[in-house]
Amino acid sequence: MAASSKAEPSRVHLGMELDERGIPLLSPMQHNPCVKAKEASFKCLHENAFDNSKCEEFFSKYRECKKFWGQQKQYFREVSYKASRKDMFKW
Prior knowledge:
Blueprint: E1 12-13, E2 16-17, H1 28-31, H2 35-47, H3 56-88
Antiparallel strand pairs: 1-2
Helix pairs in contact: 2-3
């Protein structure tokens, strides 16, 4: 039998493995990439007798991290939605 002329779609995008829908598969760390910032915030609180004013820098970094990765997740959702809508109208 001859090999199919249709190429298998790539299962890797930007170094990330993709699922059958083309959405990047995420490791537990990638689901919450801000774990280190979160842990640093808790550690600071513990070391400073839960005085929030002494840990504001850690809280700020954690908020920035969560905001950035929230935007990334939204982008992947939008890309996935647009791809599924585009495929829906292929006849």
